[in-house]
Write a structure and sequence with these properties.
Layout lengths: L1 H38 L3 H30 L4 H21 L3 H21 L1
Length: 122
């Protein structure tokens, strides 16, 4: 029984690690596509598609955090962190659509920093 719980916790932990890594990578790629947005004709398309992928990665992070928390009965802290990222991603999307770069860009930098921090803590 204890081995089964440990295996499930490790599997969930691995999925959580993958989700945080994917989120961090997609936020970084958004910074790259933002640079392309300023310098190329296809940058806007790439940045728009990347926003959808980044938002999906944030939702995956929430799912992974819930799955890691529920079966093992561990701390709900990762769920709160993941939910916070999803809120920030939602605000980021709204600011991007509204073309408010004065808040959109610094929020993106903050999100990347927080995501790297979450990745380092795992």
């Amino acid at each position: 029984m204890a081995t089964e719980v440990t295996t499930n916790a490790q599997r969930s932990f691995s999925f959580l690690q993958i989700a945080i890594t994917l989120q961090t990578l997609t936020i970084f790629l958004q910074a790259v596509s933002a640079g392309l947005l300023l310098t190329s004709s296809y940058g806007e398309t790439l940045h728009s598609a990347g926003a959808r992928v980044m938002y999906g990665a944030s939702m995956l992070y929430v799912l992974a955090a819930v799955l890691a928390w529920k079966p093992g009965g561990g701390s709900p802290r990762p769920v709160w962190h993941a939910s916070g990222f999803l809120v920030l991603a939602s605000v980021q999307v709204v600011l991007g659509i509204a073309h408010v770069p004065s808040v959109h860009l610094p929020l993106g930098v903050l999100m990347f920093g927080l995501s790297v921090l979450a990745l380092a803590r795992r």
